């Protein structure tokens, strides 16, 4: 978790220069969204499904292979003691798609749960930005130890989170606008290969834009450090009061 702690410390001006803070912020963003490995893990099972279905035209074989690979990658994460969330989120998504495709007998339905999730996430990013609680701020606030301080005490970061959330929302909405017509009017192979091609690039673009917006924003307010400092001060004051009372008695 060092990479997640580093942005707060450096950006608060406790020894890190601008370049170090910027690099740490980028590392924290990638880590928060699963890293490059997480992006690959969400793309490869779909690639395996599409490749096998293209060759064999067998939904069950393709779905079971994709699910098996996803399970192996999840187990590998657990063995490496990585975050459980990242270990199981991909497995869960692939499992739903695999079961749905096998039950309906339509290979396109392997991709539908992920497409619906992407569309829902796009709407969430946009709506939360419109109401003043940008989703990206809710996600990254704890990562940078600022919680919701960006909303009331750090307006520059609220602006950055709002811009970044709009970027995520519009990018994911564009992705959905490409995929859903293929789901309705294209065939399973076309949909699968396009979905695989649109797996990593939109994510990288979204993370990059988020980094750009946050790099130009004020540093986060470390509310965790503030609470710890207040707690230490309170304990010191209580100890001093006890000593004074003891001396008077």
UniProtKB/TrEMBL annotation:
Positions of the UniProt region annotated as Disordered: 1-20
Organism, as annotated: Streptomyces aureoversilis
Protein name: DUF3159 domain-containing protein
Top-level lineage group: Bacteria
Skewed-composition ranges (Low complexity): 1-12
One Pfam family it belongs to: DUF3159
InterPro entries tied to this protein: UCP010219
Lyase is among the record's keywords: no
Keyword entries, A-Z: Membrane, Transmembrane, Transmembrane helix
Transmembrane regions: 59-79, 86-103, 115-144, 165-186, 192-214
